[in-house]
Each structure stands twice: as structure tokens, then as C-alpha cells.
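User: C-alpha cells for both sequences below?

Assistant:
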Amino acid sequence: MYTKEQKKNLYKAYLQAGAAYKYAEFKARRQFKRERSEKTPYKPGSIGLSVISSAIKKEYGRILSRKERKSLAKAFGKPFKAFYA
């Protein structure tokens, strides 16, 4: 059998092996930071008007949302004009 000193050393090695295993598992499963994007950030209005928005602007004088256009049509008793791409 093992002496008292050998048992103590074996127990130390057992604890260290468990700690090393947990540390390796932690390192293997960690998530890395994403790298910063190389693309320039989008600035609103930089693309320009689409075909639909330019048609709405031509019809109403400014760009209105669908909800606003529906309420205007309802208020004036006109049929709602839908703009499609």
C-alpha cells in the first residue's frame, strides 16, 4: 500500500488534474470577440430616393407613410392609391 506521504501527493495530483481539465474545457469553449467591420457605416439619405418614394413625393409633395396616405384618402373620401415596386 501507499504511505501517508504518497497518498497526499496522489490526492494533490488528482486535484490538479481536475483543475487542469476544467481550465482546458473553459478555454476550448470560450467565445472570441468579433473583429470590427471594415464596411463604412450607412448614413441615411445617402442612397437616394427609390422609385416608389419618388412617386409618392410627386403625388403628395412629400414622402408620407402608408398610414398617413390611408388617413388622407379617408378624410377626403378618395380611394387609397397603393404604390408597388
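Moving on to the next sequence.
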Amino acid sequence: MKHEPITQPSETAGPTRSIGTVLLSFLAGSVFLPLLEGMAGKVGEDLYAWLRRILPGGKAKTAEEKLLDDGQVVLVDTVRRVIFQLPADLTAAQATAILNLRLPIDDDAWLLVRKDYARGAWVIEPVADPPTGSIEATTDDLPEEGIGR
């Protein structure tokens, strides 16, 4: 499977990050906000159903393969420098928990949002770069007619 390199953000990319900002606010205008809000509000809909709505064909297929093979998908927002490691069985309650996380730092590191299974909690951690095989998603990927709910 071909992996396209993740676009590195420019020095002026993305909104300003501040310690304690709720992730929900930080994601305004991001392709991930409708995904997470949709998952939080639609109990019983699976992650792949939402990914098909926000990703074009090839990226959606890659996401499906990752969910089936790895049990998770890693999505990247290069504008905000945020990486989401989402399990195939993401629930509405987990999506809500993610949106209510607070940003831990105010610097230019990538932020990885992932489930810490040992602690049983969602965390945001600074990392140097997105993992290999991550899928970049942008607002350009959204369909013009919106994603529907």
C-alpha cells in the first residue's frame, strides 16, 4: 500500500494554541470537528461511516484498511498539527471525551490525541512527527454539500 508523505506545516500554519484551551474550540474549522461531533451525537454509527463522509475515495479506502488490519486509524490535521489515533470501536462517549480534552502545551510540537489504555483515559501528548502511515485529512477533503448527519 502506497503512503503519501504528510505535509509539514508552515511556520504560520494553524490557529494559536494556548494551554488549557478545550480541543473542541481549537478544532473550529477543522475537518475533524464534524467527525468528532458527529460521532458524539450519533450513538450506534461506526467510525468508518463517518470517515467515508469526510475523506475522498482513496483516503477512505486506506482508512478502512487501517481499521480492519490495525484496529485503529491515525489521522492528521497539518494546519493545527494534531494527530488523532482513533480505535475502530470509537464510541459516542469517547468522542465527547476527546472534544473536552484541554491542550497541554503552547508550542509548535505535533499533538497526538490517543487513548491511554493503562490509565483508561484520553490524553494529548507532544510528539516530533506523525507516525508513518498516517492519513492526512483537510477541509479540502470535505464534500461541497457538507457531510450530512
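User: Anything stand out in the second?

Assistant: The chain has one domain: 23-139.
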